[in-house]
Amino acid sequence: MEESKKTLYSAVQPTNSLTIGNYIGAIKNWVSLQNDYNCFYAIANMHAITVRQNPAELRKNTLSLLALYIACGVDPEKCTLYIQSHVPAHAELCWVLNTFTYVGEMERMTQFKDKSAKHADNINMGLMDYPVLMAADILLYGADVVPVGLDQRQHLEIARDIAQRFNNVYSPTFTVPEGVYMKHGAKINDLLDSTKKMSKSAENVNGSIFLSDDRDTVLRKFKRAVTDSGSEIKYDPDNKAGVSNLLTIYSVFAGKTIPEAEKQFAGVGYGEFKLAVGETVADKLAPLQAEQARLLADKAYLDGVLKSGAEKASYAARKTLSKVYKKIGFYQI
Ligand code: ATP
Ligand code: LTN
User: Fold this and answer.
1) What is the value of pTM for the model shown?
2) % of the chain beyond a pLDDT of 70
3) pLDDT tens across 169-189, in order?
4) Which terminal residue of the chain, N or C, has fewer Cβ atoms less than 10 Å from its own Cβ?
5) Ligand of minimum distance to the alpha carbon of 10
6) What lines the ligand 2 site, CB under 6 Å?
């Protein structure tokens, strides 16, 4: 761990299988940033239980997600990879930060409103407190930057507000984090409804490409993807949302810029274009899936990564928490 490097924090919830939206909006950037920052990448299982989970599935998804991080190129030698619940300081700081957060502002959070509508039978306190736990995650490690998809921007803003509020009441304690959003790809949309973000818990699985999808499934889903009534393959998110979404996906998976992709598909029909996007994505997913499976077969290795990750994370988190406890007047022995 080099002291001169800035700190980066991010996490994904171990719910369902990840989509290419999660990959493009989050994990892919983690890999490119890991050499320049002191990185903490967590598996947010405490966030996951804000929506009811099947215990066996949650356990399985947790290890799968770790294997996926590594298969995608996140290097456990360079980064701290750990499970959120292995570091109790997250829950402890969350409690303190709760007293710096207003009920009204939590009720106004878009994700809370969306998830409350979707899970009307279980609008629990954790769902409402989700952004405060996320603030605790970030602030515990003094993160300077947080790479996430655009859907998390509101949560990041609240984390900044909470940090500033605390710093103003006491003295500078928390680093105020910056969100890092990609120019293209921070919001990959549903293949069947370009107004919605692609989500791993979408009702219609045909709108999402899962990283675990096999080749035929990938090709079939792209074949059905919505385009528009025109015929030109041009990046124009306002007027050609479906085509622009496919161009973004293609450019990321093919390692090309959007103008390069536009040039390549000039004069090509939508059918052929969608097949090319599907094939490019499927070609990239196959080795990733194979590597994930290889890693999952080596549980001792994965457990070792988690153990050392939890130790490193706990050490950093404890330091912040003890500073906070001192400032707020908790008697320490
Ligand atoms: P869920 O549907 O279960 O709420 P999700 O697909 O939104 O899950 P998260 O675990 O909430 O996934 O998000 C993990 C990361 O992926 C976050 O950084 C989030 O911003 C990013 N992300 C999620 N969906 C997209 C998307 N469609 N486009 C770009 N980034 C995304
Ligand atoms: N809420 C995030 C996952 C998450 C996270 C974090 C992201 C939990 N804690 C801290 C960045 C920083 C999501 O993507 N749904």
Assistant:
1) 0.93
2) 99
3) 999 999 999 999 877 777 899
4) C
5) 2
6) 9-13, 44, 47, 134, 137-138, 146, 148, 152
